[in-house]
Amino acid sequence: MDKQSKKQIMIDRMTEKKREVKTVRRIVLIVFLSALLVLLIGGAAAYTYVSGALKPVDPKSEKVVEVEIPIGSNLESIARQLEKNGIIKNAKIFKYYAKFNNEGDFQAGTYGLTQAMTPDELIESLKTGKVYRTPVFTFTVPEGLTLDQISKVVESKTDYTAEQFMELVQSEEFVNRMIEMHPSILTDEIKNEHIKFPLEGYLFPATYPVYEENPPLETLVMMMVDATDQAVSPYAEALAEQEHSVHWLMTFASLLEKEATAETDRKAIASVFYNRMEQDMPLQTDPTVAYAHGEHLSKTMYSDLEIDDAYNTYKNKGLPPGPIANAGMSSIEAVLDPVKSDYLYFLADKDGNNHFAKTYEEHLKNRDKYITNAQ
To answer: What is the number of other CB atoms lying within 10 angstroms of the CB of residue 223?
Structure first.
């Protein structure tokens, strides 16, 4: 074989080897790309699965599910309990999510949870022992408001008008439904013929979280009545022993709420009203006159006192037929635990400070000192 032939064979072999190397490289590249694609697809699928499992089961759900977390429960058993009750989609993923975020110091108890809660909201609830959700909006009902004033608060926060609100709270069907739902605080006393608005005083002052954009108007009112039930029903038995009703309590407390200008004066004012009723004296409290007139009176004139109305405590002895506003816990507790005193009179000066007197003569001196001469 000549040199030329040997050279050609060598060239052919080198060319063949190059082809083989290219082929191997191509195969390796294809295998690598295929493996990478499988990983990407698998990773995307895994990500989709995990992220989906961490979303609320039903973001629109408002149904509250009671979930019992026994003492001594670990994270795994809690996650299983949540999945069993339909609150989360996957117990394992919830457990790993909580571990990843170094969460796990949860409290035992009975929780009212919903399928609309996120893992973070559930974790916060289990840590604090409270149900935690981010409300869509909140509305605040201050102490001392009438139903008419509350209607304007609701109007400012929702699409409902004040007129729609007042129509609902005066609806006989709705009032009867509230009585059926809250028999411990609502009785036929609120349907007395002299009462202007049956649910007056029963919409508790508080800040209310709302978890849907357009809740039914009935739901908003029911929230406020529920809050009153929770605040007052614990005292129902004690009131019954004293032969007083919740309606009596709410009516009395509403007078304190409208009269008191300072937190500390409520119990003293309560003692004045108790003392006057014991001596068969009319309460003579100006806010009842304003309520009888159905409007705010910046100053009560003698002519205003002549109104013939069951709420006018200048003309009628004892408490009015029903509450004249909503009362906060300070006023409610003042009725239940007044100070002991011999006071029969009180008045507020221009700065809102109350001055008490045992006799009418002392009261007149206070009037001259703090009102007449101060003007």
So the answer is: 18
